[in-house]
Amino acid sequence: MSELLEGLFRESAGSLVSILTRTLGARHLDLAEECVQDALIKAMEKWPFHGIPENPRGWLLQAARNRAIDVLRRERRMVAAPEIVAGLEAMTVAGSGQVDDELGMVFLCCHPALGREAQVALILKTVGGLGVSEIARAYLVADATIAQRLVRAKAKLREVQAEFDLPQAMADVASRIESVMEALYLLYNEGYSICAPEFSEEAIRLARLLVRNPATALPQAHALLSLMLLQSARDGARMSDAGGLVVLRKQDRSLWNRERVTEGVHHLDLAGHGGALTRYHLEAVIASVHASAKRWEDTDWGKICTFYEALEAVHPTPVVRLNRAVAVAQHLGPIAGLDLLDQQVAEELRGYSPYYAVMGHLLEQAGQTDEAANYFLRASEVARTGVERSFFEQRARGNVGDFLRTVTVIH
Fold first, then answer.
1. End-to-end distance of the chain based on CA atoms, in angstroms?
2. In the chain, % of residues over pLDDT 90
3. From its phi and psi, is residue 19 left (phi > 0), alpha (psi between -120 and 50) or beta?
4. Do 295 and 344 fall into the same domain?
5. Which of the residues 45, 120, 160, 261 has the least number of beta carbons within 10 Å of its own beta carbon?
6. What's the rounded mean pLDDT across residues 106-110?
7. Three-class SS of residue 352?
């Protein structure tokens, strides 16, 4: 029951907060989140004894709505409380307009009064359903940093009296779309990195909303969706029957979701209709090169290296450099890959397990096995999941085959 509730909450929290916020107003985003959280607590208390309702999501929405009405009537903390209460009472539990509500919520979080980091964190929290700790890991910062960022972002929305609006009614879609895509990208990567498909599937769902809306169906949005689809096509082969990680080299490619590959290539074609070349275009192209190879041995590493070089020129980050080093090592040898990972990269990626894992792999390939084992042990110490920790510990002992998988996390 607890797993079912957690899964349902992950899937529904963002849409429920969005529906309530549209009626309550952006200045009372905190109240919307509190009421949805309260609805989940009530479900945990009642459902084990009374059974799961026929429409679980509708039940949660009704409970959250009723809680909001109670708060408004009791605390009278809103000037327009009577009108807002009337709007809540008129709300149907079916949550009509859910798609528009969610897209409107995403763009509210990207109000131009907020900085980029605050915009992305707010989307991840309110629409993506991530907790503070999960967002902090995605940004490689402390939990307190994200908590403060969220508090300030909500205060700023109240200060500027931000309004909940739909993209097609907004004049500044172009100024917000980059933050929206960055947030969805981080949400997808969070799920991919910790093998939590509910996060990555939520990111894909929201990206689909972008490309279906005429105001946001931009080439870069198609590129982002393409990247997610092509990456997620491998999900069925990433874990063994025993629950361990399976590296890209050893994956059974017959388990890759070819329908997703086809759909991803389709959106990559649509992404090419614009003149701009973004990081999402380049990453999607790299993913398509992997997807087109029937066997590991057929991978065109020279082409991948070329695209990573272009990606680093467009988006120069230490994680892009790390990915590029992996590709270069595969194409030209481990020493060539190690030469790209200088001290600056090491400092910027301190505490980031994929960095230590890649270093361990390249050093091992270069014949420096003792030093490689130390890096794998360090990777296990900072691993984010038990599956990763076990994998890296085995690598340190030399009990697992070659390690090589692109990191696919951009910061």
1. 36
2. 41
3. alpha
4. no
5. 45
6. 85
7. coil
pLDDT tens for each residue of 342-397: 999 999 999 999 999 999 999 999 999 999 999 999 999 998 788 888 889 988 88
Under the banding of pLDDT at 50, 70 and 90, the label for residue 223 is very high
82 and 117 together in one domain: no
Same domain for 70 and 12 = yes
Choose among 67, 43, 65: nearest CA to 55: 43
Residue 222 pLDDT exceeds 70 = yes
Are 206 and 229 in a shared domain?
no
Pull the structure tokens for residue 41.
């607590």
Residue 234 one-letter amino acid? R
**Residue 211 in domain:** yes
Which residues does 21 contact at the CB level (< 8 Å), separation at least 6?
A: 28, 29, 32, 101, 105, 108, 126, 164
Of 64, 96, 128, which residue constitutes the final position of a domain?
96
Name the DSSP class of 245. B
318 in the same domain as 264: no
> Which two tokens mark 139?
């940004």
Tell me, yes or no, whether 211 and 143 share the same domain. Answer: yes
Please report the pLDDT score of residue 183 as a whole number: 83
Whether residues 307 and 294 share a domain: the answer is no
Closest Cα to residue 252, out of 262, 240, 260?
240
196 vs 248: CA distance, rounded Å? 18
Question: Which of 41, 63, 96 represents a domain boundary (last residue)?
Answer: 96
Most confident region among 93-107, 146-160, 220-234 by mean pLDDT: 220-234
Cβ neighbours for 311, distance < 8 A, ≥ 6 positions apart:
279, 282, 283, 286, 320, 323, 324
Name the residue range of residue 91's domain: 1-96
Q: Is residue 375 part of a domain?
A: yes
Domain annotation covers residue 202: yes
How far is the C-alpha of 209 from the C-alpha of 221, rounded, in Å? Answer: 10
Domain count along the chain: 4
Task: Provide mean pLDDT across the span 152-166.
Answer: 85
pLDDT band at 81 (very low <50, low <70, confident <90, very high): low
- CATH number of the structural domain spanning residue 403: 1.25.40.10
Give the pLDDT band (50/70/90) at residue 200: confident
pLDDT at 96 over 50: no
Tell me the CA distances in angstroms from 104 to 6, 146, 162, 164, 171, one per residue in order. 25, 23, 12, 6, 13
Given pLDDT bands bounded at 50, 70 and 90, which one contains residue 51?
A: confident
